[in-house]
Amino acid sequence: MTVLAASITTRSGKPLLSRQFTEITKDRVMELLSNFQGLVANISSDHTYVESEHVRYVYKPFDDYYLILVTNRQSNIIQDLSTLNLFSQTVNYYLNSFDEGEIFENAFEILSSFDEIIVMGNKEDLTISQVNTYLAMESHEEKIQEIIERNKETEANAERKRRAKEIARKEHERKMGMPSADDLSSHKFMGSNDAKMETAYNSYYSHASAAAQQSFLHSQQQQQQKVQDQQYSKYQGTSNAFGGSGMKLSGNNKQSGAVAARKLRPLPKEPEEDKPDNNGILISIKETVGAEISRDGSILSSELKGVLELRINDESLAHAKLQLTSNVNVSDKSFQFKTHPNIDKNSFLSSKALGLKSNDKAFPSNDQSLGVLRWRKVGTADDKSIVPLDISTWVTPSDIQEGVFDVTVELEINENYKHPLNEITFNIPIGTSNVSISDDNNDVNATVIEANEEEGVIIKVERIEPGSSGVFSFTIDSGSEETLFPMNVCFKNELVSEQSFTGVGISNIVSSKDDSEALPYDVISYLNAEDYLVV
């Protein structure tokens, strides 16, 4: 058999990865993949290969993608299918959620495994375990390069220490009043204008004892001080001659004092984010949701990103293994889970446990947050599963004044979200101060907190309880309805809860050395809005 190329494409025909194993151009590969889409659309799903006039396509669909081998028509179909199966195993080894971004992230490893399987168009007699072994083998050149880099770092550190000692020695000599070689070279003999005499004195004192050198330097400093005093007196006399007042050491210059005070005043520090207390092990489950919502309340698109962070401040608790709640489905294709590289991925997929690959190793116990699990979910149109706040708007031109609009906003917490939402703000992108909340239609205590050209109009709602809805109306000066959109909606929530909005949570934490030893822990979940837009 001769494999011309191996590729991964989407069901719609978009090429993601491709490796050519023979002398074939990129344009030719793109043409072959384009022809494949036309052929596979006309056959039933039971087939695993199709043929064109010149080549054979052996393919395997997985999720929303195709894994395709392009071979010549004379190749053995049995061998083709065996090779395709090995390719499929290598792809499954590197991918978890079959997300397009994850495919690009692991592209180097996937293509390297392809190169191990096919050499010059011919299949190597390998198993999946052998492929993984070859890819994990150490590189002699890489080790040499690492040694060179370490030697460079060692030399740099040695040079830094030498420079530090030299600076410390010069500082010590300065404090002791001893001249350094730099001082002697910079101070010329000033007792004579004869160049030969100056050279002779400098040569003599450069090799003299320390006491003689100090005496020589002291005399030079006295000479320099006399010259400076003469210059200063001359300058002072010149200033007085022209009616100047000379240099004043004190005065009533308030402006200069204010400038000096500003220079001396330390810059204000930016406020640091409050760090929650940690009683040993603290789990922070942070989720950020974004959405595009039409003015009538329809969900156009939505996306949720989450991260589970671990903070440990007690070394005795560092050997920990986190167990997710039973409702978390790690094989759910709608979620895209990604574990930290040091986490045992197989244990996570099989038992929903988050622990290090080696039970003898421990998590850092420096009380710093460490992300151990990430996830992402993209909602479809009209899918409210990851949209905690439903929003509908009605915009009506005012009957009283042209260019003024009456806007009514209805809010309702999604039935899937069982907690209140706090500090909900609506940022309306129009620079005007002519805005007012209607007292007759405001059951959520909405208030205008900003209304200017820089910030636009910001309306704040303090809190909405779960399972409830609310309405507020406002009148605003605007050129047209379109200038009021998109409205950017922000909200945040912090809860002491075992689970997040999407249900990701911790059921218990045990010691990685002894599964029967339960470890104490606390859980805080967060939900924030980012790019939550009404368009």
TrEMBL record:
Q: Where in the cell is it found?
A: Cytoplasm; Cytoplasmic vesicle, COPI-coated vesicle membrane; Golgi apparatus membrane
Q: Biased-composition ranges for Low complexity?
A: 215-236
Query: Keyword Transferase: yes or no?
Result: no
Q: Which residues form a coiled coil?
A: 137-175
Chief location: cytoplasm
Q: State the InterPro entries in the record.
A: AP2_Mu_C_sf, AP_mu_sigma_su, Coatomer_dsu, Longin-like_dom_sf, MHD
Topology in the membrane?
Peripheral membrane protein
A GO cellular component annotation here is: COPI vesicle coat
* PROSITE patterns (UniProt xref): MHD
Output the superkingdom of the source species. Eukaryota
UniProt keyword Transport present: yes
Q: Which UniProt keywords apply?
A: Coiled coil, Cytoplasm, Cytoplasmic vesicle, ER-Golgi transport, Golgi apparatus, Membrane, Protein transport, Transport
Identify the Pfam families for this entry. Adap_comp_sub, Clat_adaptor_s
Q: Which CDD domains match?
A: AP_delta-COPI_MHD, Delta_COP_N
Any GO BP: endoplasmic reticulum to Golgi vesicle-mediated transport
Q: Which parts of the sequence are annotated with region: Disordered?
A: 215-279
Which stretches make up the MHD domain? 278-535
Q: What PANTHER family does UniProt report for this protein, alphabetically?
A: COATOMER SUBUNIT DELTA
Q: How does it assemble?
A: Oligomeric complex that consists of at least the alpha, beta, beta', gamma, delta, epsilon and zeta subunits.
Q: Give the function comment from the record.
A: The coatomer is a cytosolic protein complex that binds to dilysine motifs and reversibly associates with Golgi non-clathrin-coated vesicles, which further mediate biosynthetic protein transport from the ER, via the Golgi up to the trans Golgi network. Coatomer complex is required for budding from Golgi membranes, and is essential for the retrograde Golgi-to-ER transport of dilysine-tagged proteins.
Its family remark reads: Belongs to the adaptor complexes medium subunit family. Delta-COP subfamily.
What is the protein name stated in its UniProt record? Answer: Coatomer subunit delta
